[in-house]
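User: Sequence in, structure out. Go.
Assistant: Echoing your sequence, followed by the structure tokens.
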Amino acid sequence: MWILAVLSGFLAVQGYAVERYERKTVSYVNFIWKATPSAREMTDEQAEMLLETLKKHIIDEMPRFDYEPLPGELTEKFVQRAGAQDSLSVEGAGKLLSETVAPAIVRILDLKKEMKARGLVSEEERRSFVVQKAKELGITAEHLEKVMNSAYLFLPVVTHYERKVKEEKGEKTVSYSLKGGLAWFHLEVDERGGWMVPLKVVEAHGVGQAEQDSTYRWRGKKVKGD
């Protein structure tokens, strides 16, 4: 399967050493951001397979964390502003994420401080508070509670995609080139409030090829080479 070969460059660099921290939630933008015109030539199916493989690798590398996709309500502004740009680097996408998504996440993180200040200790008081604040933010109480416990956030980005087909002796071989990476952030809260700290931008380049008409296995499923 073409994507497995292409992903080799990504998977070699995605693990980020955060095991020293207590168990927290890692939030993530639940789609591959196609940041350039060439990246937008990827099909939705290819982007979905790439995202699933990246998530599986990250979870395998850092099993001590829970993983929670950000609800669409929190990423809407990012999608609108990023979509208005013809081209966006991984660093640029990370900066835009800080400007658009971070404020809402910071407000959620600050709720922990507010709960403590109000002395909300019973489960009933806590639940009532969470439900009320979730309505104000336009998300579910379940999403709010999980994001409230977030320690990290990552954004997957593709900045280049290229597909070529070569025919030789009646057989077609398809090759792919893929560039992109992850923008990692650490979410912090103290007595001054909450904020998002850029940790690292990991970029990689992967290449791979497969016989166009052959069938391969991916996670127990049969998939075509192209």
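User: And one key feature?
Assistant: The two ends are 8 Å apart (CA to CA).
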